[in-house]
Design brief:
The chain contains 3 helices and no strands. With about 70 residues, it is mainly α.
């Protein structure tokens, strides 16, 4: 279980804020297949714990958008 190891903090620690903002604004309008592809692209190089936080964020965005 790779995620059970002690973190080495060896990742670049950089994000593309514009990419995240653009994706967040369009998230609720995407078909489910496109959402999944975007999520994989957005989180592909992140440790699992960060992926989970971001996925939860976008799930909440989807719910909020569908309630409007």
């Amino acid at each position: 279980m790779r995620d059970s190891n002690i973190a080495t903090n060896s990742g670049p620690g950089q994000i593309d804020a514009k990419k995240i903002k653009d994706l967040a604004e369009q998230w609720g309008k995407l078909p489910p297949r496109d959402r999944e592809a975007s999520m994989r692209e957005l989180t592909r190089d992140m440790p699992q714990r960060y992926r989970e936080v971001i996925q939860e964020y976008f799930r909440k965005l989807s719910v909020q958008d569908s309630n409007k």
